[in-house]
């Protein structure tokens, strides 16, 4: 009998690994619907869906390893990061999926959410006011018109698998949909600024780096409180709070 590994678990969802099978348990079946649909449409390698019986989705493990994790060292070469950039560009150039994703929130809604979150961060004493104010200023550059692309919506480096210098698959598509391509690139390079040039080289087109920096600040501001309340540590070295401090 294979050992059961808890990959991630909180009040909204949990992922377990048993051998070469991942079991995703989600309280919101709409997220699973989005995930299955996005994997069927994405022009990049994705996990094989083995079976689905709500609230559980079973998918096969991917070959290879991730490029690293937020707060940890990168295990991938520059060529591997560039290959990831090429895969991300292929996704962004694909025909649009039918619905908006996490990266597709309107500028007005996003600005309102950001302002409310910044106020809570200061009021609750989670972050100092000067740190929040500076990063809110940086984040402003992300609040601009953008052309919709097929986005992953939660493209953390832990969600991209490589073998050598080849991308073998991308996991966790529950936030996928139409959205801002630079949100994906910023999420992927969050906390690993040293590999941004590699990713951009593989992506193969001009990127507004100010917008990438803005998304680093914006994303970090929005998730610090949620992470703290769900048992994660955004204050760990190299994680979201350090990303915010790097903008000072």
TrEMBL record:
GO terms for molecular function: transferase activity. Pfam families: APH. This is Aminoglycoside phosphotransferase. Keywords: Transferase. Signal peptide: none annotated. SUPFAM superfamilies: Protein kinase-like (PK-like). InterPro entries: AGP_Transferase, Aminoglycoside_PTrfase, Kinase-like_dom_sf. It comes from Streptomyces avermitilis. Residues 42-203 form the Aminoglycoside phosphotransferase domain.
């Amino acid at each position: 009998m294979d050992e059961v590994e808890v990959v991630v678990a909180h009040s909204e969802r949990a992922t377990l690994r048993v051998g070469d099978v991942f079991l995703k348990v989600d309280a919101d079946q709409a997220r699973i619907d989005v995930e299955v649909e996005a994997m069927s449409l994405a022009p990049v390698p994705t996990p094989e869906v083995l079976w689905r019986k709500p609230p559980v989705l079973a998918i096969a493990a991917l070959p290879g390893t991730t490029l690293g994790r937020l707060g940890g060292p990168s295990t991938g070469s520059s060529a591997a990061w560039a290959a990831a950039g090429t895969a991300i560009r292929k996704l962004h150039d694909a025909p649009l999926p039918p619905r908006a994703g996490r990266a597709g929130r309107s500028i007005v809604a996003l600005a309102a959410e950001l302002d409310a979150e910044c106020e809570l961060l200061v009021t609750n004493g989670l972050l100092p006011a000067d740190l929040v104010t500076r990063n809110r200023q940086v984040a402003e550059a992300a609040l601009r018109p953008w052309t919709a692309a097929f986005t992953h919506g939660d493209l953390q480096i832990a969600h991209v698998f490589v073998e050598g210098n080849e991308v073998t698959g991308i996991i966790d598509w529950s936030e996928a949909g139409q959205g801002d391509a630079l949100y994906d690139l910023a999420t992927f390079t969050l906390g690993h600024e040293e590999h941004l040039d590699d990713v951009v080289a593989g992506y193969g087109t001009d990127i507004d780096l100010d917008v990438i920096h803005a998304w680093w600040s914006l994303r970090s501001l929005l998730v610090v409180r949620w992470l703290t309340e769900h048992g994660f540590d955004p204050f760990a070295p190299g994680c979201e709070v350090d990303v915010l401090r790097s903008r000072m």
